[in-house]
Each structure stands twice: as C-alpha cells, then as structure tokens.
Amino acid sequence: MHDIWRVFRYTKFYPWNIAANLLFNMLAVIFNLFTFVTIVPFIELVFGSPQPVELPPFSLSQEYLSLFMTHSLALLKARHGQWTCLLGFAFVYLAFSFFSNLCRYAAQFVISPMRNGIVMRLRDDIYHKVTILPVSYFNSRRRGDIISRMSNDLSDIEWGVLTSIISLGKDPVNIIVFAAVLIFISPRLFLYFLIIMPVAVWLISVIGSSLRRSAAKGQSGLGHLFAILEESLSGIRTIKSFAQEQLSTDRFDNANQSYARRMIHVATRRELSSPLSEVLLTIGLAFILILGGLAVLQGELLSSVFVLFVILFARLVPPVQSIVRVYNNLQKANAAAVRIFEIMDADETIIEKDHPVVLNGFTSTIEYRDVSFAYRTGPDTDPVYVLRNINLTIPCGQTIAIVGPSGAGKTTLVDLLPRFYDSTQGDILIDGIPVRDLNINSLRAQIGLVSQDCILFNDTVANNIAFGRTGHSPEQVHQAAMIAHADEFISQLPQGYDTNIGDSGITLSGGQRQRLSIARAVLKDPPILILDEATSALDTESERAVQQALNRLMQGRTCIVIAHRLSTIRHADHIIVMDKGVIVESGTHDQLIARQGLYHRLVDMQSFL
After folding, report:
1. Is the N end or the C end of the chain the one with fewer CB atoms within 10 Å?
2. Contact criterion met (CB below 8 Å) for 399 and 573
3. Distance between CA atoms of residues 390 and 373, nearest Å
C-alpha cells in the first residue's frame, strides 16, 4: 500500500478542508446519535409507564442516566400530558435529523476541492514527468500502455481516493462515536461482539491481498489492450493492404477476453467482502439479542435501553461495510498507483546541472570529442554500442552531410546534439562549452529540426507553423510559409491559415506536411539546423519543392544534413561517411569519389538505380 499512500500526501495542500470536513462529520455523527437517543422516550411513553423515582447522587453511568430519563419523563407526562410529550419528542427528532443531514452535506461540500484537486495535481505531475522524460524512455515502452496508465489507471486512483476520502472522513468517526456509546450502555454486550472481530479482519485481509494481485494483472492486461488498439489505429493502412483485418480482430479479441476474465475475478473478490462482513456482524447481533434479552428479563437492563443498544449496533454495520469497501478499493487503486509511480519515478537520464550556462547564440564550432553511445535493453544487459570514438568538428556557417548505410548511427549522432540522449563516453561542445553544462531549453532553442517524420498537431495551419512560439505576427507566419514554399497550397485551403489540418496533418499530402515543418523551422530561425532525411519519403515533384524550401532555409546557418539521396548533398562543405557506428571517410564529394571507397559505392548504387 506504499504507493497509494504517496497519493494521499497530496492532501497536505488542503489542511483547512480536512479540518472542516472532520468538524462537520463529527457534528453530523453527534446529531445522528441524538436522533436515535430520542427513540427511547418514545418507547417509554408508548409502551412503558414511567414513574417518578428518587435519584441517586450524580454519576456518569448508564444506570444513573436511565433513572434520570425515567424520572424526567414521568414529570413531563404529568405536567404536559402524553400527547404533548410525543409531539415534542417528534419535533426534537426532526430537528436532530435536519442538522445531521445539513452537517453531512457541509462535510461533502468542503472536501470536494480536495478530492478533485488531488487528482488534478497528480494528473499534472504525471504529464509534466512524461514531457521531461528522455526519448530513450519511450523507445522500450508501448505508447498504448503509457496512455492506459494516464487514463484508466488514473481513473482507478481517482475512484479509490475519492471514495476513501469521503469514507475515511465520516465512517471512522461514526464507528468510534457509536462504539463508545455502546460500551457506555453495556460493556459486556459489546465485548461479546469483539470476540468475532479478529476472524472478520483476517478474512477481509485475505480477500484484499488477492484483490490487489488480481487488480495488478488486470491493469497490465488493459495496458496491453490499449497498446494493440494504438498499433491498429497507427497501422490501419497496412492492415487493410495485407487484408489482415481478421488477424487484427482475433488478436484484439484474445486480449480483450483475457482482460474481461481477469476483471470478473477482481469483481468477485471485491463483492465478496461486503456480504461476508455483514454475515459476521449479523452473527454478532444474534448473540447480542440472546444475551441482551436475558439481561432485560433479569432486570439488569431497561428494555428501551436494550432497544437503543440494538439500533446503535445495527448502525455500526454500514460504516464497517464502507470501511471494507474502501480497503478493497484502495487495494485496487494501489495496483494502479504502482504503475503510475513507475512513470513518476523513472530515471530522467538527461539531468540538468544546478546552475547551467545559458546559451544565447552560436558563433564558433560544434565539436564531438571521442563520443561513444550505447543503448541498454535492460538493467542487467550489456550495453549495445551504436557509436564508437566519434571525433568531428563542425565550423559555424558550414553544411555538413552525414551519409552511410542503414544502421550506421547517423540519426543517433545528431540526436546527441540537442540532448535527446547523452553520450555514454566523451563530450559534445558548442562554442567550447560541453552540452551537459548548458541549460537544456537554451540549447534546444538554438537548434531547428526537420525530419522525415514531420510531426503536426490537430490544430490550424498557423498554429502548427508557430508551434511553441509567442509574440509572432500573422505576417511573420506568412513570411515563413513563403520561404518554405508552403503559401501557395495554404492559400487554396478552405480557411487558409485558419484551416484545421486534422490529426498529424492527415488532410495534407506528404510534401505539404513537410513544407509546414520547414516553415516552423523558418519561424524559429535557429542558428543550427538538423535535416534528418527530410526528403527521402517524397515523390519527385514534392521533393523538388521541398528541396527548394530547404535551400532557402539553409542559407546563413550551420547545417547538419542526414542524406539518403546523395544527389542532394553534392555541394555540402564536408561529407561524413559512417558505417557500423564509426566514421570511415570524410571529405568533399569530389575527394570521396576519388578515393573509390564506401561513398563511391553508395553513389554508384544510386546512379544505377
């Protein structure tokens, strides 16, 4: 239950709400108690014949209070008559009931900001954590499972916390107050009830442990279900093109049935605890009825007081059952909390120093010094090196092209520059300052990225171009689009720059999406530009338009170009050829052709094609 208690730590932001809730719950319980106490005078007036008695010296005991009640009722009956007394006690009963329910409502009213605020803060913290986790975190995890944790797991926590906050602020007070009154009325009868309590607690704890294990498996199964759904939506064109709709449906059905069976198991465990607790309490009540009835027959207890004891004991059943439900809900919520805090506790890997250097521009060189990088597929696995001993200097204002076969480490090499990953060994320096010493936001502000997989959002054209930037004018957005050769097709859209482009820009062609991505980089106006195979997935006509836009974007900037089509980098200032994580050749196009090495073979292969 450690993880769910971490959720409850968020209550520290709402001390006054907790205090007010406890106060109103206490008042509600007290008024509710008095509504039952007024039943005793009704019973005595209707079924008994109270007579004045000589009161013994005052003592805080059940016997003295019973005599005092009998004596006071006899005097009231003699003075006002039986009918008037009945009406008076009815009014008192209604008054106590009204104030009890009013305080109960006030308790819920003051606690609402807390129970909703806790979930709001937790949701914000999770989302913030997801946004700052490094790219490497998401490489080994399925997006559908992460979405499930942020939606369904958080909903389970919300439900568990919401019900527990309501119940824990009310039911323990009910149990304590009513139990104290029962002990005051007859300690011996209450002791008989306590005899069966250890058995009930043990059975409920066994059910709760089973519920926690089943809930954890259920949450994992739901994450798998969401992962299948997310993969199917992302790859729907592939599924249809291979006519594998039935295969995908069967895969989803199997996962769905497995999850349903697990949740049925969870439900049967959860629902068993409440009737079980009620049966045990009913057994206790049966003993009390027998033993209490004997006490009344022997004159040890007034019949009206015994009726009050039975009524108050019966009132213990609902709060005890509620506590049992809360315990089981918390067990299920704890399984969800474990999955949530796996994200919250994930190693950020990319750590910013306490007092980082703010990078305000780029004027000299980018330097890779003996840089190596390795992935780890697990905590106990050996590192897999994809870069080894990279030494590279990129002068300001030059265009450097990086080429090589697939898997050579080209994208990994440039991903180290904006610190999507940190190098395993060696350093990367910008203007002589290691990137690990730089403020991450200021570092990334100097870098523009245009990749093959351009990411657009379900928003307007203008907002996609201006993504993350404030203080721009519509004219600046239009100018950026013109430089990117995007204005010509934007002007033909139904609402121009205010047209919504759908999820991932689905209403646009590949070349149009790429030009919007370039326009975004133009508006950012970074001194360092990374082009990661920006034209490799385009047709010839779209490639020509995008390449023209890129040529305009590259003017006056330091550019690192990962190229698949080698014809696009013939005029680069310097070309780096990589293979198996190392730099095997470097030079200009003509120099590399003359060496008859790997670059020459790659050019010949594309020329043949």
Report:
1. C
2. yes
3. 9
State whether the Cα torsion 39-42-46-49 is positive or negative: positive
| Sign of torsion over alpha carbons 563, 568, 570, 571 | negative
DSSP 500: B
pLDDT at 82: 66
Single out the residue of 465, 463, 512, 518 nearest to residue 489, CA to CA. Answer: 512
pTM over cut 0.85:
no
So where are the chain's domains?
Answer: 2-344, 359-445+573-609
Please give the Cα distance from 512 to 505 (Å, whole number).
Answer: 9
* Amino acid found at 352: E
Distance between CA atoms of residues 292 and 299, nearest Å: 11
Distance separating alpha carbons of residues 105 and 107, to the nearest angstrom: 5
**Average per-residue pLDDT in the chain?**
76
Q: What is the DSSP letter of 392?
A: E
Contacts of 253 (CB under 8 A, 6+ apart): none
Please give the pLDDT value at position 430.
92
DSSP string, 391-423: EEEEETT-EEEEE-STTSSHHHHHHTTTTSS--
Give the integer Cα–Cα distance in Å for 121 and 6.
13
Specify which residues 585 forms β-bridges with: 577
As given in the structure block, the two tokens for residue 356 are 């980082």
Strand arrangement of the beta sheet that strand 433-434 belongs to? 384-395, 365-375, 425-430, 433-434
**Residues 406 and 354: beta-carbon distance below 8 Å:** no
CB 554 within 8 Å of CB 522: no
Lowest mean pLDDT among 11-15, 48-52, 345-349: 48-52
Cα dihedral sign, 179-184-187-189? negative
Q: For residue 370, give Cα distances in angstroms to 123, 293, 362.
A: 41, 90, 22
| Higher pLDDT, residue 13 or 607 | 13
Two tokens, residue 523: 């508006």
Q: What is d(CA 243, CA 245) in angstroms, rounded to the nearest whole number?
A: 6
**Distance from C-alpha of 280 to C-alpha of 286, rounded to nearest angstrom:** 10
Q: What is the mean pLDDT of residues 201-229?
A: 63
- Angle (CA) 9-10-11 rounded to 5° is 85
Separation of alpha carbons 129 and 120, rounded Å = 14
Which CATH number does 359-445+573-609 carry?
3.40.50.300
State the CATH class of domain 2-344.
Answer: mainly alpha
Encoded tokens for 224:
């798998």
% of the chain surpassing 70 pLDDT? 73
Are 232 and 142 spatial neighbours (Cβ–Cβ below 8 Å)?
A: no
Q: With beta carbons less than 8 A apart as the criterion, state whether 162 and 326 touch.
A: no
**Which spans in 446-539 are helix H?**
461-465, 474-483, 487-490, 510-524
Task: Give the integer Cα–Cα distance in Å for 554 and 547.
Answer: 10
Q: What is the pLDDT of residue 391?
A: 93
Tell me the CA end-to-end span of the chain in Å, nearest whole number.
63
